[in-house]
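As noted in the main text, all predictions were made from sequence alone. Below is one such record, for Solute-binding protein.
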Amino acid sequence: MKFNLTHFAAASAFVALAGAAAAQTEIKIGYALAPDSHYGVAAQKFEEVVLAETGDQFSFKHFPSSGLGGEREVIEGLQLGTIEATIVSSGTLANFVPSTGVFDIPFLFSGLDHARAVLDGPIGQDILGEFDTVGLHGLAWGEQGFRHITNNRNAIHTPADVEGLKIRTMENPVHLAAFDAMGAAPTPMAWPEVISSLQQGVIDGQENPLSVIVSVKLNEVQKYLTLSGHVYSPAMLLVSKPFWDGLDDDQKAAMEKAATEAAAAMRGYVDNVETSGVETLKERGMEVNALSAEEKAAFQASIKSAYEGYYDTYGQELVDSIVNFE
Ligand code: PAF
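Prediction:
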């Protein structure tokens, strides 16, 4: 066969296409919840802005619903450089950057505005910066909302109602200490095991914000919802440090812009579900009660011994400066 101009043009086009495809970097982004959750909405916003800012330099592959494993495994994948990005709760973050655990202290924040101001302020930003020392890069703080208790045993009004309750906590020593002090029987567990453990009665309950309870349809496996708001639940948009270090300045700026918009989308979702979530869950058949101020104070008093441990670990000055932050 003679090699003519048509063959040459086709070959050149193929080489150009292959070059473009090779130049495009795939971003695998993993998260524990569904595409229509606060994490899914944030991940889609992140992709949308990165693509708008950088043209065809990146492509995205989403792994929702723990498609890449539990949050700890995904973070380890980022450290290894086998996964580029994730959105995670603070569940296991303190195992990587211990100071992050200070935000997991129960009854620390008075409301969403207070928490957001601290995370966006110097204390939150300094802790975000620490992730660069452990093979990760923290792009932005997002959030899930305040965590509430669900269970199948009884409605909860007082610490006596959680006595011996087999409750799943995140793999988070700060949360574990609080539920221990309350008199519950906490079991730390990775999220992918939680639904089957509830179905099989291995645990009676779990705690998560309305954003999770609604989007995961926890009403299908849990009867009682107690609006305890016992702890704020931050989230973080993290990327792999090896991936981050390979980006040029324009690409880094695009990722930062995209992360800020993704975090805003996540907070918008939370604002929405905080107002509509309780009605949705009642309609789906859950028995809901909200702790009164006095009931909440009794829970706060019940974890006094855990607070002594928190002061030892994080320093009372830091804890107080967060409580009093304006
Ligand atoms: O409970 C947890 O582990 C987390 O809140 C979840 C549901 C995985 C979201 O990050």
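The longest strand covers residues 224-240. The two ends are 78 Å apart (CA to CA). These features were considered when defining construct boundaries for the mutagenesis experiments described in Section 2.9.
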